[in-house]
Design brief:
The protein is of the alpha/beta class. The chain has 2 domains: 145 residues, NAD(P)-binding Rossmann-like Domain (Rossmann fold, 3-Layer(aba) Sandwich), CATH 3.40.50; 180 residues, Dihydrodipicolinate Reductase, domain 2 (2-Layer Sandwich), CATH 3.30.360.10. Helices cover 35% and strands 22% of the residues. α4 runs parallel beside α5 and α5 runs antiparallel to α11.
């Protein structure tokens, strides 16, 4: 058996890091050997949970001192760009948390760095590992609901602080520079990535965003992005103010012969509505192969097998989702409809 892939984690301020590290600890394909973050409390936490690893306050120091094969990047959206470039220059494979960056320029820089270095680049979309979503995407791709003409996804908890995110996390989510926006960047990204995966890149984007409830923040707490193709439309909704779970984290794919509704979470159902079954019936969802059950499993299996990252978590899909988000920010700010692709120069806000 090959030696485990040696992984270092760069940044610990994104709360999703801890579940991904648990997956890594359980994987026979990889092992955590180092971590870097400027916050002593987070270094103490990871040292306490994963004894024997080397920890550093500076990412470059970790990369210089510890032999690695790959990195996980779980800091703020803006800071991840430089970390990815540092890793790529050292020939390290990269797993970075969604939405890839704080803006399109950052996403393009990450993509260029990985391509120039010839390393694997994967963007983790947490809902990608739901069996019911993977099966829905497979059904849509093979034409089980006819020609797909729309998608919808709504991400809507009551807000980062309200659902128990740590201050390390929500402080940068509420910072327009470090996050890229507010709820729009944090949560419209899911619907943008879903639409891009199913329908390709849209030709036009419109959007609305506003701070409707949370007077203690300075960024948007609700947003809607609408995407358009010649024969399709899609909606990505985001909220940091929704009370309760109704309608939240539900994905829908609309086709000419049927509708697929993907319930959220572990144990969520996949429902199929047709003309014969207009109220929908549950679809049997097969168990996932081991390598498609988590971001860690997929990332490490791609590296070990020398295989490309495909589908929702591919760098190309994620880069294009970032372009949709950027167009959405422009549209929401200007009250306009924005055509894609964005110009190479002057697209940023």
């Amino acid at each position: 058996m090959a030696e485990p892939i040696r992984v270092g984690v760069l940044g610990l301020t994104h709360d999703h890091v801890w579940s991904n590290l648990r997956d890594l600890a359980a994987s026979p394909l990889g092992t955590l050997v180092g971590a870097a973050d400027p916050h002593p409390e987070l270094l103490d936490k990871i040292r306490g949970e994963y004894g024997g690893i080397q920890v550093f306050a500076d990412a470059a120091a970790l990369l210089d001192a510890v032999a690695l094969d790959a990195v996980y990047i779980f800091g703020d959206n803006a800071g991840g760009v430089e970390l990815a470039e540092l890793a790529a220059r050292r020939g390290l494979h990269i797993l970075i948390e969604k939405p890839m960056a704080a803006d399109l320029d950052g996403a393009d820089r990450i993509l260029a760095a990985a391509r120039n270095a010839g390393v694997t680049l994967m963007v983790n979309w947490p809902f990608a590992w739901l069996p019911q979503l993977q099966h829905a995407l497979e059904m849509a791709q093979r034409g089980a609901i006819g020609r797909v003409h729309g998608t919808r996804y709504r991400s809507a908890p009551e807000g980062p602080k309200e659902i128990g995110c740590t201050p390390f996390f929500y402080e940068w989510l509420y910072d327009a520079e470090r996050n890229g926006a507010g709820a729009l960047m944090d949560y419209c990204c899911y619907g943008a990535a879903l639409a891009r995966t199913v329908l390709g890149q849209p030709s036009r984007v419109s959007a609305m965003a506003g701070r409707l409830v949370k007077e203690y923040i300075t960024v948007d707490d609700n947003a809607v992005i609408v995407m358009q193709w010649p024969n399709a439309m899609a909606v990505a909704e985001a909220s940091w103010t929704q009370v309760g779970h109704l309608t939240s984290y539900v994905a829908v794919i609309y086709g000419s012969e049927g509708t697929l509704l993907v319930e959220p979470g572990k144990g969520g159902r996949l429902l199929l509505a047709t003309r014969d079954q207009p109220d929908g019936i549950a679809v049997d969802v097969p168990p996932l192969p081991e390598e498609r059950r988590s971001a860690t499993a997929y990332f490490l299996s791609r590296i070990a097998g020398g295989l490309p990252v495909e589908g929702l978590c591919s760098a190309t899909v994620s880069r294009d989702a970032q372009e949709i988000l950027e167009a959405g920010l422009i549209a929401a700010t200007e009250g306009s409809t924005v055509s894609l692709p964005l110009p190479i120069y002057g697209s940023g806000q």
